[in-house]
Amino acid sequence: MDTDNKILFFGDTHGGFDHCADIVRQIRPQAIVFLGDIQTPYPFHEQLADIINLTEVWWIHGNHDTDTEQQYDNLFLSELKHRNLSGRVCEVAGVRIAGLGGVFRGKIWDPAKSGWNFYSPEEFIARGGFRAGWRNGVNLRHRSTIFPSEYEALLKENADVLVTHEAPSCNRFGFQVLDHLARHLGVHTHFHGHHHDNYDYSAHYVRMGFCTYSVGYRGVTALDGRIILPGEMDGLHENRVARIMHGS
User: What is the 3-state secondary structure (H, E, C) of the chain?
Assistant: First the structure.
């Protein structure tokens, strides 16, 4: 096996898993990492039953993984719940990977503005009243919200690779705080999902201090950044922007 293929990163699946088994059987990676918006229609371990004994499965959540209680339970309460990388660093196929699932939401924390409204889930519950809670924690929607407390806890760690659902600053909708996190962790590579497209960020690598790759909608990317399977929507966003700029 090519060592650069030992870990594969899977972009937003949004409930579509037809490509997963073929890729794993063909390449036989030691581990795979899902980058959020998984939206598994069945318990995650059942959804991946064909490959769960062929590779290690790891994941972070995206904003849509808390759209319904069923989708939340299928992922967070599955037999793969212990493979959630969000908020911690784990050794995966010999690589230290840090994870930060979910998205920034202004009600909690908008990193583009100064300060935050709620530092932690506990503070949100204490100040948010009855409607802020669900199952002895924050409400369902904010189970996929990034709180400053989780972010700051990761700043104390070190890792080789960072995976997030949100994008860093090289994306027009990205966040500088993720650049800051990656540098504090000391990672050499970062992968993200969320934006359903593949972008060439290489012009930003020197400024940022690490390589970063966007993995497209149902796309797959290797540890060294090579595209194993293009995303189904790769290029659509950039082409749409180009048509707008040229007035077509």
Answer: CCHHHCEEEECCCCCCCHHHHHHHHHHCCCEEEEECCCCCCCCHHHHCCCCCCCCEEEEECCHHHHCCHHHHHHHHCCCCHHHECECCEEEECCEEEEEECCECCCCCCCCCCCCCCCCCHHHHHHHHCHHHEECCEECCHHHHECCHHHHHHHCCCCCCEEEECCCECCCCCCEHHHHHHHHHHCCCEEEECCCCCCCCCHHHHHHHCCEEEECCCCCEEECCCCEEECCCCCCHHHHHHHHHHCCC
